[in-house]
């Protein structure tokens, strides 16, 4: 099968690098276009990028010329699938241009996540929300659209919450995070701020977690999303960890749940046909029985970095239950989330053809 | 004024070292006796101890001979004031022997904290509980007694809570901690477990926090403590920080409180006559208005390591208010807490004479 | 092809865990026996071991029963190939027993490295030294023998040095190391000793580096090794890195070398038939042209953790040239080194049959 | 005694903050003027500065208005003593303007260190070089001049070397550094670059160390400095340490030295009248006999951060001796060095009066 051509916006940043790492040998997608800010455009990717991953920068990618961050700037053909790893301000300006140019913009930015007709999707949680793209004006005009994935701190959490919401209903929850520095990009967090330290503040992060959980666990009703009616209170902290966000959760259900029922909800959670989605983990939520897990250094790479690990399920003296959830913030929480969104869109026939809304699923990967 | 002679049990450990650091130039106390386990007894302190603090080991202390961990083992005179920095198992066996031998045992151990007639005290919070010592059987027989300070993770918290409890009443609270490695002693946490990592578990810590808060904020009623009737739910985590425990708190009051009222409660909190207590900080709870404070590396040494710093007061979508509190875990949270307990006992006349229960305050430091 | 049965001595430690990780899917070897100290013997491996790697403990291994650390303790058949990850003191006692029992002991310990008839081997550097096993008394009696690999800090260094020694001759060198904490095992280095710190001392390490380099680069002359006649001065330091030893080298050659000649010596260094050795890296020494490389976090996993990375070649104002070399200390520097030794022994026919010295290479992997 | 008014150029950076910390309660100097770049000028210091030290920002300083970085920009009186903590590029432009305006510019920048008529001084090492200021053209015209202190990595080293050079003569030396992140300023080193990592490169650092050592240990001959004729080879590395540079040294002397002679040279090294210089440590070079010292976390604050600690003296198999030296890079290695230079200049009468070259020592502090 021929691989679909894809481009990466914001290719030189931390999430852009993860896109390259995850897409380099992807069976369905082929990187044919890389774009970054004016500072980088015109250089080879190898010159423009300070590669920070522990797998080598692929030679073919290093030799590609970085394009300007605009649809018309594309030398040769602009791919119709664009993975976007832009800061919110830049995304707010650029992503609509690519959607208007007929591209499927698979965005990791916060810019449009809470916009009513933009799907905010984690495929295991709410892939039905993807149908919102058909209501976007770009879609009607050019076939293009914008799909977003949530904040890195929300993804692991909603993976753990979704099977609980389905079975017990969530009334309220606390979450206190300990987030890795890679979530702030590069150069990001100065070493003097975080070595041997904790910073109990990440700008806008608590607000994002609270509202994104509501939309992700909300229900599609016709052409809009009914937010989940649950109280969510988040405390967000930065800690001296390279990769992997750890989150302490206390939760109250609408319906009483036993320990066994909760563990069953997690272990039986398999909403996707992972065999046919290259990036989907076999088990999206893994429970570790050890008393001191999950831990970012040991558990972030489960499911090739796409699984969330839960642990320490125990009773809460204030709400019902307490547990800890961990996930890799730049794989599951960013680039991998976007790639999985694209894979599901491919399965749904939303990537090809783009010119008109497709209704019949294309047998991708069959 | 002549300084009172004091001894240190468990002198070679991390808290033992902090006792030496804090007592070395103390105006009221003089270290005349050091004891440690059999492995160390008989050696000089300089030989026995792997000194881990960044101030020099005092030469006079280095030359002292470490005594066995038993009252009868004392070469020369056994001091009547014993600061104890023992593991709980050892404390459970040894501390009563020293109390029975007529010593005021100022303990940092968890062994007796929750025993009904043992005061669990943070002087700014509940110094009236100290009167419980008069009900101890050792006190009646030998004049000796045991006084304890709380767990390192509970101390900063109750300092922040006490002025709020006084004014608004606490109904429930959620606390999620990020605790420093020094809290686990030496060698303590292996570097492979914590570098670039988070361990979301500290043995017995959540239980200790929950129950100790209840006793500390409880009220003395005749000869026993009425526990505070509030729900407390704790999540305890170890992070890659040397010193300083950071805690995220959500809290619900019995009586509504405004932001200004809460800030006033903290800023006006001055329960001790700090001018007459060498180790008491001028302001036990300091509020920092910066959006990203408190931080352990920057704030742990406020008030010479004895002040708690609070910050980030904001509304909670689930309970009433959220904030962050930080305190130094081996100074305010351990050795300094015990020294301050001893200072208050001295002011109350409970250190001298020990043979009979003293009722009239001795004018120490006047 | 049937896989050869192998055992692991000291299976629960850090290097033991790496052996399991590297051998679990090895095409030539199959783990059938695990042994550890009395504390662990009798338990399942899953119970006995605190698994510290970021790949999951294989379920099959977790279920195996840990055997006592003695040849006669083997339940079922004792494998004839034993990977040993023991502390030097224990190795000194146990490894000869296994050799005497007819086992090929592939040791990572320092106990016998400098013994005259024990080969100290890095296959890319001095695989001809392996013939020393034929002179061992165990070999003659039972077929068993001991082969060792060097200290983790010496391996990366000699990989970088070997092609230079071949072409230019080494007269003297200075090496200053910055070594990862995993080199000290688990629990190993206390976090309070190394977080935000440097410890400029590792017991016996400088001596080991200096003498092992001499033997590794020495020449086999009949039945003994002529040490390399070069002055080596080592400074060894522990730094806050999980995995990967970084070493700064200044070197003086017997014959002048240009920058291009040195780079060519490294890039052309391909002493092994890596296509036929599963663990051998394609390129054992990789030069990185970036001004700030190699770095442990970014480069340790090159060649699946088996390649050494060199960088920063520049003139030395005192000797001839300066450079930096980095290698993974528990893969290339320990378990991987031993596995590669075993692979070469297999190719040489020294693993099968063990009862008599084999002279004809067995076509393994062909 | 009235304190002299001083100003700080580059007051908001890491070294600027250390100047404020060290000068805030200085008995001889009083901060009356703070300047920083256009971005900060006009704001209060509290607004302009992200304070990163663990002692509180003094309230009086926080309230001061930051002035523009130019002599004519001074609101009120421009102090005649200026401590400069500027990047080299900025220093190259601005420091001469202040010297021309009649200020004694006590500079921490590298811009003019190697200029022939600018003294590069560590008072314990070469305070006689200060007389070079009299040859500066600014001095003749306005009374102003520039004095510099060395790079943070050179200072600890030359403190250890000076007593050895005096007694044995230095022929050649290797030095391999492990430098703290604070040396790169703020934001400086990104956390993703250094957490769990080593960066074996610091721009221009090896060149600076090599040439500055030559000038510092050089001898004043009339109006110029004869560089020390010794070969120096430096390897410079960045490690995950907040403060404190650790350096491994191998050294060859012109005259043989015994261990005892070297230890005596260090312990007897007391070139300054420390009783009359507030910032001078009693013992500039302290030898620690423990096998694993010095260590940055434990030893950097000796002598209030102004002493260098040496340790691990042992024979070198290549040169004569090996040792480790450590010093605090932003106190001894930067702001403290400059303050001590100013104190010595005060003692020499070079601070007052500035209009003409003073020959008679002023009895400061007498």
TrEMBL record, chains A, B, C, D:
What is the scientific name of the source organism?
A: Granulicella arctica
Look up the record and give one Gene Ontology term from the biological process aspect: 'de novo' L-methionine biosynthetic process
Q: Where does substrate bind?
A: 179, 238
Q: Which Gene3D superfamilies match?
A: Dihydrodipicolinate Reductase, domain 2, NAD(P)-binding Rossmann-like Domain
Superkingdom in the source lineage: Bacteria
Oligomeric state and interaction partners are given as:
Homodimer.
Give the active-site positions: 152, 245
What gene name is listed for this protein? asd
Instruction: Give the top-level enzyme category.
Output: oxidoreductase
Q: Which PROSITE patterns match?
A: ASD
A GO molecular function term, named singly, is: protein dimerization activity
Q: Which SMART domains match?
A: Semialdhyde_dh (SM00859)
Q: What name does the UniProt record give this protein?
A: Aspartate-semialdehyde dehydrogenase
**Semialdehyde dehydrogenase NAD-binding domain: residues covered:** 5-133
Record-annotated membrane-spanning stretches: none
